[in-house]
Amino acid sequence: MLHRRFISALLTATALPLGSIAWSPSATAGTGLYYTVVDADNDPYDGIYLRNGTDMGNVIRDAAHYMTYGTRIELICGAWGTAVGPNTNRRWHLVRVATGSITNTQGWVADRYTNTPNAANQATPGEPECGSAPTTPSGTYLAGTQQVRFCVNTSLAGCGTGLGGIQTPAIGQNSSVSMVCWVDGSNFTDGYTTNRWFWVRSASAEGFVSASVVRNQTSVPSCSTSKAIWAAQSAVQRYGETYARSADRALFANSEWSPGPLGEWAGDCPKPPYVGWRAAGISIPKGNAIANYHTYASARRIAGGAPPVGAVAFYNVTSYGHEVISLGNGLVFTTTGMDGNGTANTVRSYNYWANYLGWAMPA
User: Fold this and answer.
1) Is the pLDDT of residue 285 over 50?
2) Buried residues in 143-174 as b, exposed as e (16+ CB within 10 A)
3) Omega cis (within 30) before 259
4) Which of 121, 156, 228, 298, by CA, is between 20 and 30 Å from 106?
5) Cα 19 to Cα 24, 80, 178, 199, 235, distances in angstroms
6) For 102, what's the count of Cα atoms within 13 Å in the CB-facing half-sphere?
7) Taking Cα atoms as reference points, which of 226, 274, 230 lies closest to residue 249?
8) 97 beta partners
9) 311-330 pLDDT tens trace
């Protein structure tokens, strides 16, 4: 339901104020920089409107321009406009809406109402100026926009870029990245063909991208030495499975699959994290989720916030709790359903469930 701010508004645009920039329909290429619309003023409303230029008054107050707080947006480019907020922040962004009812709509939003990492009146790292050609970073960067993957055998559904109805985050063209590790997998072509992949981190996302798009490469170790990444990429390869492979099923006594059918993932949420970390050479608790949580909590190893890649996260839901393994980027790999439901493993946002207890890193 739209807030009364919308209901009471006139469905007309105000004139473009002097000194502001109007929306440019030719500026449509995204950067792969994703951020969130936030309630910077602690106001009584549930969202804000996209503007048609770099001024709060340049707006059409209708449903086609309305974003609720928490909406994800992709930056297209930045510009200077009229000041907003107590810090007189003049920074604005032309954006594409990435979630919600007006997904793919473009328009302007004041930097004040985003969770970009820059201070007021500073440009967001990696964001081009509107109307300017993108600059090439001096260090390691991506030659083209890439959606990250969490494993590199592209014949497996879990190594794709659309998981559980969620698109994996993208890293934009010419974005600076740091290389973490490498692994060989499926061939990928972008300028040249290679089966080498790198786990990279940018200001907005992390994950595997093809070596063919990484420029100014540096020497990094095999991802088998990065245990958290190895655990996560091993686990997510079980995406879409309803029953465990024979090798995975054999890691547990038959009685440990009870009361559900032998090898059924549903109702056995601690098992994918266990399988992932076992592939990384580390054995973690494999009892009920809430019991596993207390094991880490008693050792003072529970932290809050979004779990980093490889972390095991916990929720106080049902009498047994719930346990998942993090893929980073605010996403987790999880079982679904209860014993006997026969439902498949999937990917969800880490805050999908209520009563989040926090996360622990096994290694």
Assistant:
1) yes
2) ebbbbbbbbbeeebebbbbebbebebbbbbbb
3) yes
4) 121
5) 15, 9, 38, 43, 53
6) 20
7) 274
8) 73
9) 999 999 989 999 999 999 99
Domain architecture of the chain: domains with CATH: 4-113 (no CATH), 141-225 (no CATH), 230-360 (3.90.1720.10)
Q: Which amino acid is at 200?
A: V
